[in-house]
Structures are given as C-alpha cells and as structure tokens.
User: Which sequence fits this backbone?
C-alpha cells in the first residue's frame, strides 16, 4: 500500500495569514460568548453565526450605515468604537449613543418596516464582524435563541430611536434618554380603538412609536399624527380634561410616560415645558382654523377617508395644465402593465387632483395583513410590490379600503373565445363538479395587481409620458401639510 503523501508545507506568508485568521476566530467567539444580549444563545448557534461572518477593518471616520438605503449587514464590534446618529422630525442630527466592543448594530431589517435608518460613523479604527442580512434571515428559523436575542436588541433600539426622533426629547443626552426609556409603558392599540378620550382627565404623555392616529374634536377629524409624534401634553400642562379623541387609524404602538414622571421631567428640564407650550399654541391654532373653515374640514376628512396620509408620496396632477380630455397617463400605464393602475379625478385638495391609485401604505397596510402567502414585499424605497408568491386568493382586494388592488388573469390564462374553447371549458366545469379526487392541485388562474410605481423600470411611465408636466410624484407634505 502506497504511503500517504504528506501535505505540502505552507509558505511563511500563508501560515502567518492562517494564524491570524485562527486568532481572529477565537477572539470573535470570545466576544460573542461575552455579549450581554447573547448570554442565552447556545455555542452551536454562535458558531453558525460566526461561520456566516466576514472580518472587516474600518478606519476612523468611515460611514458604515447610510440613511438613504436599506442596510444589508449586521455588524458586531470586536474592537474600537463608533457613533450611531439619526435625524429627528425637524431634520436635526441627533446622537443616539456610542457603541464599543461587544455591541451589535444593523439588526433592524430583520424584524420589519419600523427600522429607522441610522448612520454609523467610526470614532476610532474598528474591527467588526460583518454578517450578510439575507443569509442571516434565511437561517433565523433554525437559530431560535439568536433570533430572540436580536429581537430584544431591536426592541430596545426602537425605543431609543423613538425618543431620539421626537424633537421634544432629542436634545436630552443619550444617558437621559436611556433612563427615560425605562419609565415608558408600551401599549399596542388595534385599528379604530381610542387611545385617549375627549373629556377624560390626563394620565400620561404618549409617544407614537409605530402607526398613525387621527385627532377628533366633537366628531370632526382635525389632524393626524405619525410615528415620532407625541400627544396628551395639552391636558397634562393645563390640568384640564382632554380636548379631543385620539384614535388609532392603523395598528399602533405607543409609549406612555406616566404623568408623575412627566412632571418630574419638566421640573428638571424647564426648557422642555417652554417647548411644549409652543407646541400647544400651534396645535390650538390649527384646531381653530379647521373648526372655522368648512373647506379645511372637508379636506382633512377626505385625506383620512381616501388614505392620502398612509404613505410618504402621492401621485398628483395640476388639472389646469392638462389638455381637455387628455388621458395619456392612464394609457401609458395600460400600455406598460396591461391595464391602467391609476385613475384621474380622485380627490381635489386645493389645486391638486390626487390620483386614485395604491397609497403604498407605510404602516398597517391591510393588504399585507390579510395575505396568507406573504406575497407582499416592501422595496428599499418603501414601495409595496406583489411577488410571484401570490396565488390569486383575492383577500387583498377585499381588504384594501381604497379599491387599489385588482385581480388580473395570469399570462397563460388570458381569456379566450371560440366554440372549441367554450366546449372544453364546459367539460372542465363538469369534471370539477364531479366527486373525483384531483390528481394535482389547481393552478392559479389570476393574481393580484396594483400600482408599484413601475418597480423594475427606470421611470414612472405615467409621469414620463405626461406632455405638460402636470402629473408628478410628490411628498405628502407638499399636498397636505397638517
């Protein structure tokens, strides 16, 4: 029997590289095992996490997370420190905190749409483990303890982000916000339920963590609020009952700061009370304007009914710029997608006609909630698309309150005509009615279809084909500043 050939000796350079890699792996395992958030994660799952990882080194001053794109990696710090920052609702840069050895960041996209896009800037030279988000997401179901640990990190960061995004609280130091976070009481409110009731005494300041609410005074909708907003301050500061209802427009998560803690906070930071009184003055002014302006009342009600505030952007046209009977935009949409996914003469708000089409609801989308096949996905730009997982069940059509979803035949199921087709269809119907066991599952004949802002194309065909520039995609605030 021939002797086994010895393995070729490594060159000094290759051996040194292998030694460094082995040392880094041991160091990484030690760090993972010592992480507070990973204390309950078994070694097997940590080893799998490490197997997905790539060692990365970044110099001081490097940007690791961008605010304009979906981030594709989870990072774990092995050495060095960095700052997490974000912008509040008034576009001010807010320091979230400093992270160092043993901290992780970038976990947000694993758990949904709430993820607040932050920026991470290295303060010193940093050594990190970089884990691809797609690979980690696929493995999460078989790594339950790791998934639970990352979700805990995510939930805590949600609270931190909410506090930092509220202009009222963004001026607090990170440690002050951390202390305040421990006092907040989380609440989940179902769609349509009241959070505070007109005429009742105040008990807390509420921070809107996720979702949308409407403010109703004497049965009239006077305003809407979104994530990062707060409410309940007026009654707390005036010691009078609530002047309005606050009702959940979507499934909503709020953080309640008990009244006693609120009073202690403004006693310690009197400048916060001054800011709150400015907010109260502005809100009272807006309430008075709506109450005394029937057209404004109508527009606010229309905005809520038509879902104009559910997304971040709207397709609008300026009718005075349109030639008479012009339907070029609708035809352009039909030419590209097989049917017109938009309809003119939707809702008139001042000089704009807000076109009837999908609102790309940014939170609590009813179509997403009822889909049994998880066929809806949100792109990096916030657009809801329907994937090939759609089986055409039609539940999303019934759920959408704005009739923005339609059922369309699949390409191989386009309607056909003729006597032979009619005869075959009748025979097929008889077979379906007979008590036979099907040999294979029925194939979908239709699928759901809606506007996805021309996902996969380089332009919006309706906007590109408009000859006068009348049709535009604009931020909601341009149409309806509340």
Assistant:
């Amino acid at each position: 029997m021939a002797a086994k050939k010895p393995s070729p000796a490594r060159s000094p350079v290759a051996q040194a590289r292998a030694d460094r890699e082995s040392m880094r792996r041991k160091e990484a395992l030690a760090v993972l095992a010592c992480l507070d958030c990973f204390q309950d994660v078994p070694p097997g799952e940590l080893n799998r996490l490490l197997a997905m990882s790539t060692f990365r080194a970044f110099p001081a001053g490097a940007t690791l997370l961008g605010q304009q794109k979906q981030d594709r990696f989870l990072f774990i710090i092995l050495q060095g420190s960095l700052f997490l920052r974000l912008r509040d609702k008034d576009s001010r840069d807010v320091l979230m905190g400093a992270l160092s050895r043993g901290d992780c960041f970038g976990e947000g996209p694993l758990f949904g749409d709430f993820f607040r896009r932050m920026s991470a800037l290295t303060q010193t030279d940093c050594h990190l483990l970089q884990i691809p988000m797609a690979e980690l997401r696929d493995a999460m179901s078989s790594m339950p303890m790791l998934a639970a640990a990352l979700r805990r990190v995510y939930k805590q960061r949600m609270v931190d982000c909410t506090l930092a995004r509220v202009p009222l609280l963004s001026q607090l130091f990170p440690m002050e916000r951390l202390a305040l976070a421990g006092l907040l009481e989380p609440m989940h409110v179902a769609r349509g339920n009241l959070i505070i009731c007109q005429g009742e005494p105040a008990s807390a300041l509420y921070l809107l963590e996720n979702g949308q609410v409407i403010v109703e005074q004497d049965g009239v909708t006077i305003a809407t609020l979104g994530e990062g907003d707060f409410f309940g301050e007026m009654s707390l500061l005036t010691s009078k009952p609530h002047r309005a209802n606050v009702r959940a427009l979507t499934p909503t998560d709020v953080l309640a700061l008990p009244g006693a803690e609120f009073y202690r906070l403004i006693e310690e930071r009197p400048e916060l009370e001054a800011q709150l009184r400015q907010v109260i003055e502005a809100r009272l002014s807006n309430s008075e304007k709506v109450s005394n302006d029937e057209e404004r009342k109508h527009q606010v009600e229309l905005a809520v009914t038509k879902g104009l505030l559910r997304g971040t952007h709207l397709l609008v046209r300026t009718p005075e710029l349109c030639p008479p009977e012009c339907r070029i935009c609708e035809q352009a949409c039909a030419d590209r997608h097989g049917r017109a996914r938009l309809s003119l003469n939707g809702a008139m708000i001042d000089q704009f006609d807000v076109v009837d089409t999908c609102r790309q609801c940014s939170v609590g989308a009813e179509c997403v909630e009822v889909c049994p096949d998880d066929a809806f996905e949100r792109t990096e730009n916030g657009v809801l698309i329907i994937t090939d997982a759609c089986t055409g069940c039609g539940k999303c059509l019934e759920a959408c309150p704005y009739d923005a979803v339609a059922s369309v035949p699949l390409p191989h199921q386009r309607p056909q005509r003729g006597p032979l087709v009619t005869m075959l269809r009748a025979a097929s119907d008889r077979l379906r009615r007979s008590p036979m066991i099907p040999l294979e599952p029925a194939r979908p004949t239709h699928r759901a279809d809606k506007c996805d802002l021309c996902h996969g194309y380089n332009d919006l065909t309706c906007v590109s084909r408009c000859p006068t520039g009348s049709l535009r995609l604009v931020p909601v605030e341009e149409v309806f500043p509340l």
Notes: Residues 12-34 form the longest helix (23 residues). The chain has a mean pLDDT of 84.
